[in-house]
Design goal:
heterodimer; A: alpha/beta; Rossmann fold; 5-stranded parallel beta sheet; 5 helices; globular; B: alpha+beta; 8-stranded antiparallel beta sheet; 8 strands; 37% helix
């Protein structure tokens, strides 16, 4: 299972990485913004992406829209401080499969990852 | 700035600190800040735009900031390291995003965070915007959330018309 973490905060990527490692996922690539992520998806071919919304250069929503032009199936989870219902709807319309609002507990993030992978029929 | 603009920040800092650091926050009496000098050495700053504009600053003494950052990151960083600034930025980002969600029916955006470290730095807020300081006592020391926000002209006009 290959997972791409997209967040401009290294601290946040490390927190998410530690949750993923606890779940047994070790093949993890990191990107610091949407553009960096788009440049990595071709070679890395992720099975799951965790995407922040507010990032410099290219935000997470723009990444999702770009990514979904070529890939309709790889699960995407938005992990963001954007908590308004309108934002959640906007992200889902753009193609995310699940949504986690920061701050989150490790348990909540684990739950959402497991739930998303189950829904999208990708085993660990 | 009325109380409805402040209470989302009180809930947000309590939520972020308890969820991410398991750190209870005791919120003191908010007061208006005078002058632009930073309250403490470490400032995490977020800009707000849209139907509300201004700044949100999390001001912390460096020893309190170090303790809080180590709770978030699970390790200690030097105060002048990029990792330390990154973690401070993420904390103020989470507080601001959380509070923003409480501003019902307002289209508001927040910037990516900036972090300034050093004693006696100044943070300018837009002219005519009062800055409210919210003192917060934690087991890591006292931190202050400084909120300087106002409704943009169009939004303020719309609200006063609705009230009339």
């Amino acid at each position: 299972m290959k997972i791409l973490l997209i967040d401009d905060s290294k601290t946040m990527r490390n927190i998410q990485k530690s949750v993923l490692k606890q779940l047994g996922y070790t093949e993890i690539e990191e990107a610091c913004d949407g553009q960096d992520a788009l440049s990595k998806v071709g070679a890395f071919q992720p099975d799951l992406c965790l995407v922040d919304w507010n990032m410099p250069v290219m935000d997470g929503l723009t990444f999702v829209k770009n990514f979904r032009q070529n890939d309709k199936t790889t699960p995407l989870i938005m992990v963001t401080t954007e908590a308004e219902k309108s934002r959640v709807i906007e992200a889902i319309k753009a193609g995310v499969n699940n949504y986690v609002v920061k701050p989150f507990t490790p348990d909540l993030l684990s739950e959402r990852i497991t739930e998303t992978l189950a829904k999208c029929s990708i085993g660990s | 700035m009325d109380a409805s603009m402040i209470s989302p920040f009180v809930s947000a800092i309590q939520n972020v600190f308890s969820t991410m650091f398991q750190l209870p926050v005791e919120v003191g009496e908010p007061k208006i800040k005078s002058g632009h000098k930073s309250t403490h050495d470490v400032s995490g700053i977020i800009g707000v735009s849209g139907e509300m504009t201004g700044t949100i600053v999390l001001s912390m003494p460096s020893n309190a900031a170090s303790s809080i950052v180590s709770l978030l990151a699970g390790m200690e960083f030097e105060v002048d390291s990029p990792d330390f600034a990154d973690a401070v930025g993420e904390i103020v980002n989470m507080i601001s995003g959380n509070a923003k969600a409480e501003f019902q029916r307002r289209d508001v955006s927040i910037s990516c965070p900036s972090v300034v470290i050093g004693s006696g730095h100044t943070i300018a807020v837009p002219t005519g915007t009062p800055c409210v300081m919210i003192p917060c006592a934690t087991d890591c020391g006292e931190v202050v959330l400084e909120v300087a926000l106002r409704e943009t002209e169009a939004q303020a006009t719309e609200q006063s018309s609705a009230a009339a």
